Amino acid sequence: MRRNWRPPSGAMRRRRPNSSRRSCGGWDLVGAPPGATAGWERIYRGRTSNEHCTYRTGGIALPSSSPHCHVDGKNSSRNAIRIDQEGLTLPERSLYLGQDEDSVKILAAYKALMERLLSMLGAHNATQKSKEIIQLETRLANITVSEYDDQRKDISTMYNRITLKQLQRIAPSLHWKRLLDRIFHDNFSEDEEIVVLATDYIQKVSDIIKTTSKR
To answer: Which residue intervals define the domain Peptidase M13 N-terminal in the entry (predicted)?
Structure first.
């Protein structure tokens, strides 16, 4: 790349977020496109990539967990889809809970940054929207187990191999088969076995989705 190369115009860079939003079906913080159906379940219809799913849930991946294929923790001769709790935006759950002066300052700075970015991207009522997002992230922080907790250090205590049908019963607010079919470009049977490492968390996320207003 030439050292003195520059983009042809700043306008090109400013248009990119809008183009990305349109390609993903719009962004609820600037108003849904005409005829759009509100709701978490909409993210799975017609989308073919994990990035699309992540985008439609406001950056909270899928909005509970990040399914990946790994070697089965109790059977190294096979691979298995593994579902675990998803990381938070801030590096540690305690930062959302205001347990000390530093946490309060970090959360305030995070809110100010989010509000500024939302405004720059054209969000309506950025102050209120940033408050709602942090409230949701705080609810997720409250059900997240810290990676420093002993519970997260022993995979045998977290390991739960269940079928896709059983997972759907545990966390009914997400359409798991549709979701995994999209991510892995497959057509899974309801008897497909998957490994869940945070069963309690997944169940509570499903409850949060159920009680969170749709956009």
So the answer is: 69-214
Instruction: Write out the two tokens for 48.
Output: 């073919």
Residue 166 to residues 27, 28, 172, 193: CA-CA distances in angstroms? 32, 32, 10, 9
Q: Which pLDDT band holds residue 95 (cuts at 50, 70, 90)? A: very high
Matching CATH number, 21-87+145-211, of 3.40.30.10, 3.30.530.20, 3.40.190.10, 1.10.1380.10? 1.10.1380.10
Per-residue confidence (pLDDT) for residue 214, from 0 to 100:
75
Element (H, E) at 154: none
Which tokens go with 80?
């298995």
Higher pLDDT, 98 or 169: 169
* 144 contacts 90 by C-beta, under 8 angstroms: no
0.70 exceeded by pTM:
yes
SS3 141: helix
